Amino acid sequence: MKNAIITGSNGMIGNLILQNCLSNPEIKTVTSIVRRKSGIKHPKLVEIIHDNFLDFSSINNQLTNQDICFYCIGVYTGQVPRAEFAKITIDYTKAFATALRINSLETTFCFLSGQGADTSETSKIMFAKDKGIAENILFKLKFYRTYCFRPGYIYPVTKRKEPNFTYALTRLLYKPLLSKVYPNIGVSSEKLANVMVLVGLNGYDEPILENNAIRLY
What we know:
The chain is α/β, with parallel strands linked by helices. About 40% of the residues lie in helices and about 20% in strands.
């Protein structure tokens, strides 16, 4: 049985992964690092309230003996200024992953990236460049295994408040039209979360899973 640690479990994908892990008989404990209490009670769950995502030294003890990490912290393009986007996407990832790597030597790290992530770090698109930088940081840390998941549009199976008009329109059109005309345009939130957990537990042949690999898994 494995110990799993999750960041971003108050978000859409992180929460689905959390629920999956709590019900999964192959997972013994689930450590969730959050800014605020989730209200979820479960005998497997260890919830750690932590608000400084650039410094994890105060919770080093909770980062030990973790077999699988699901890193789901992220922000939508346009939600925050450029510098804040980089801090959340790159700096938070680097700080957490570095601390985890020091404290857990045999971790499989599953990173929620995005379609178009550019590991050459030359893209003029902010999202692509910053996600590519974050992926490179993770590969250089040399975890036991590292997997980067690059979904396209993530279709929310459960209703939510959409972050902007574009997402609201895409959600409206996705099932009746877009997913049929362009089947590889995206993946459902439940499918993505389930695949991340399965890969975390069982591994995969390639370190990067593009949208089509996630969809067809």
